[in-house]
Protein backbone atom coordinates (compact mmCIF):
# COMPACT_ATOMS: atom_id res chain seq x y z
CA UNK A 1 0.00 0.00 0.00
CA UNK A 2 1.25 3.47 -0.85
CA UNK A 3 1.95 6.10 1.76
CA UNK A 4 -0.43 8.50 0.00
CA UNK A 5 -3.63 6.73 1.08
CA UNK A 6 -3.19 6.98 4.87
CA UNK A 7 -1.70 10.47 4.50
CA UNK A 8 -4.74 11.72 2.59
CA UNK A 9 -7.09 10.04 5.06
CA UNK A 10 -5.20 11.63 7.96
CA UNK A 11 -5.37 15.03 6.28
CA UNK A 12 -9.14 14.67 5.83
CA UNK A 13 -9.56 13.60 9.46
CA UNK A 14 -7.44 16.49 10.68
CA UNK A 15 -9.34 19.03 8.57
CA UNK A 16 -12.66 17.65 9.82
CA UNK A 17 -11.44 17.97 13.40
CA UNK A 18 -10.13 21.47 12.80
CA UNK A 19 -13.48 22.52 11.34
CA UNK A 20 -15.22 21.04 14.37
CA UNK A 21 -13.00 22.96 16.78
CA UNK A 22 -13.48 26.25 14.96
CA UNK A 23 -17.19 25.98 14.12
CA UNK A 24 -18.81 24.18 17.02
CA UNK A 25 -20.20 25.85 20.12
CA UNK A 26 -20.81 22.79 22.27
CA UNK A 27 -17.85 21.85 24.48
CA UNK A 28 -18.36 18.10 24.06
CA UNK A 29 -18.33 18.40 20.26
CA UNK A 30 -15.13 20.43 20.50
CA UNK A 31 -13.55 17.66 22.58
CA UNK A 32 -14.65 15.10 19.99
CA UNK A 33 -13.08 17.22 17.26
CA UNK A 34 -9.81 17.36 19.17
CA UNK A 35 -9.91 13.57 19.38
CA UNK A 36 -10.34 13.40 15.59
CA UNK A 37 -7.27 15.56 15.17
CA UNK A 38 -5.26 13.35 17.52
CA UNK A 39 -6.37 10.25 15.63
CA UNK A 40 -5.19 11.83 12.37
CA UNK A 41 -1.79 12.39 13.94
CA UNK A 42 -1.74 8.79 15.19
CA UNK A 43 -2.56 7.52 11.72
CA UNK A 44 0.32 9.53 10.28
CA UNK A 45 2.69 8.23 12.95
CA UNK A 46 1.86 4.61 12.20
CA UNK A 47 1.90 5.06 8.41
CA UNK A 48 5.27 6.78 8.39
CA UNK A 49 6.67 4.25 10.87
CA UNK A 50 5.70 1.38 8.57
CA UNK A 51 7.05 3.22 5.54
CA UNK A 52 10.36 4.03 7.22
CA UNK A 53 10.78 0.53 8.64
CA UNK A 54 10.44 -0.94 5.15
CA UNK A 55 13.07 1.33 3.67
CA UNK A 56 15.61 1.27 6.51
CA UNK A 57 15.06 -2.28 7.80
CA UNK A 58 14.45 -0.74 11.22
CA UNK A 59 12.78 -2.95 13.82
CA UNK A 60 12.37 -0.33 16.53
CA UNK A 61 8.85 0.88 15.54
CA UNK A 62 9.17 4.15 17.40
CA UNK A 63 6.15 5.63 15.57
CA UNK A 64 3.88 2.89 16.90
CA UNK A 65 5.25 3.31 20.41
CA UNK A 66 4.65 7.05 20.21
CA UNK A 67 1.13 6.33 18.97
CA UNK A 68 0.39 4.21 22.04
CA UNK A 69 1.70 7.01 24.24
CA UNK A 70 -0.50 9.53 22.39
CA UNK A 71 -3.56 7.30 22.80
CA UNK A 72 -2.94 7.08 26.55
CA UNK A 73 -2.53 10.84 26.85
CA UNK A 74 -5.68 11.40 24.75
CA UNK A 75 -7.68 9.07 27.00
CA UNK A 76 -6.57 10.99 30.07
CA UNK A 77 -7.30 14.30 28.34
CA UNK A 78 -10.82 13.28 27.37
CA UNK A 79 -11.55 12.02 30.88
CA UNK A 80 -10.43 15.25 32.49
CA UNK A 81 -12.11 17.34 29.78
CA UNK A 82 -15.45 15.59 30.24
CA UNK A 83 -15.21 15.99 34.01
CA UNK A 84 -14.62 19.72 33.60
CA UNK A 85 -17.49 20.05 31.10
CA UNK A 86 -19.86 18.20 33.43
CA UNK A 87 -18.85 20.36 36.40
CA UNK A 88 -19.36 23.55 34.39
CA UNK A 89 -22.70 22.28 33.08
CA UNK A 90 -23.91 21.56 36.61
CA UNK A 91 -22.77 24.96 37.85
CA UNK A 92 -23.99 27.12 34.96
CA UNK A 93 -26.58 25.02 33.17
CA UNK A 94 -24.98 25.23 29.73
CA UNK A 95 -22.06 23.82 27.80
CA UNK A 96 -22.16 26.49 25.10
CA UNK A 97 -18.64 27.87 24.77
CA UNK A 98 -19.70 31.41 23.83
CA UNK A 99 -21.94 31.76 26.86
CA UNK A 100 -19.22 30.40 29.13
CA UNK A 101 -16.70 32.84 27.62
CA UNK A 102 -19.08 35.76 28.15
CA UNK A 103 -19.65 34.87 31.80
CA UNK A 104 -15.92 34.45 32.38
CA UNK A 105 -15.15 37.89 30.95
CA UNK A 106 -17.64 39.58 33.28
CA UNK A 107 -20.40 40.39 30.83
CA UNK A 108 -23.74 40.56 32.54
CA UNK A 109 -26.81 39.01 30.90
CA UNK A 110 -29.00 42.02 31.78
CA UNK A 111 -27.29 44.32 29.32
CA UNK A 112 -24.39 46.75 29.17
CA UNK A 113 -25.86 49.03 31.85
CA UNK A 114 -26.15 46.30 34.47
CA UNK A 115 -29.20 45.11 36.37
CA UNK A 116 -30.04 48.53 37.86
CA UNK A 117 -29.97 50.54 34.64
CA UNK A 118 -27.97 53.57 33.59
CA UNK A 119 -29.16 55.79 36.47
CA UNK A 120 -27.99 53.55 39.30
CA UNK A 121 -26.02 55.18 42.11
CA UNK A 122 -22.28 55.07 41.61
CA UNK A 123 -22.43 54.81 37.84
CA UNK A 124 -21.11 57.66 35.78
CA UNK A 125 -22.23 57.42 32.13
CA UNK A 126 -19.23 59.45 30.95
CA UNK A 127 -16.70 57.23 32.75
CA UNK A 128 -17.86 53.93 31.27
CA UNK A 129 -19.51 50.78 32.57
CA UNK A 130 -16.98 49.69 35.17
CA UNK A 131 -16.76 52.68 37.49
CA UNK A 132 -16.71 52.38 41.24
CA UNK A 133 -18.29 54.85 43.66
CA UNK A 134 -15.91 57.27 45.38
CA UNK A 135 -14.28 56.24 48.65
CA UNK A 136 -16.56 58.56 50.69
CA UNK A 137 -19.69 56.82 49.37
CA UNK A 138 -18.14 53.43 50.16
CA UNK A 139 -17.44 54.53 53.72
CA UNK A 140 -21.01 55.79 54.15
CA UNK A 141 -22.41 52.56 52.74
CA UNK A 142 -20.44 50.38 55.14
CA UNK A 143 -21.15 52.56 58.23
3D structure, described in words:
The structure is a single chain. With 143 residues, the chain is an all-alpha fold. 68% of the residues lie in helices and 0% in strands. The chain has five helices and no strands. Helix 1 runs antiparallel to helix 2. The relative contact order is 0.09.
Total count of helical runs of at least 4 residues: 5
Rounded to the nearest angstrom, the radius of gyration is 26 Å
Distance between the termini: 81 Å
In terms of structural class, how would the helical and strand content be classed?
mainly alpha
Short descriptors:
143 residues, mainly alpha, 5 helices, 68% helix
At a glance:
With 143 residues, this protein is an all-alpha fold. It is built from 5 helices and no strands.
Topology record:
Elements: H1 4-23, H2 27-56, H3 62-92, H4 97-104, H5 135-142
Amino acid sequence: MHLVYPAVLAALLFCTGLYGVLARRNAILVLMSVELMLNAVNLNLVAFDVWLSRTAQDKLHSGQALTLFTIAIAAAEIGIGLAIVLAVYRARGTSDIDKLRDSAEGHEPDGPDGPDGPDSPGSDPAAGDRTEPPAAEKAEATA
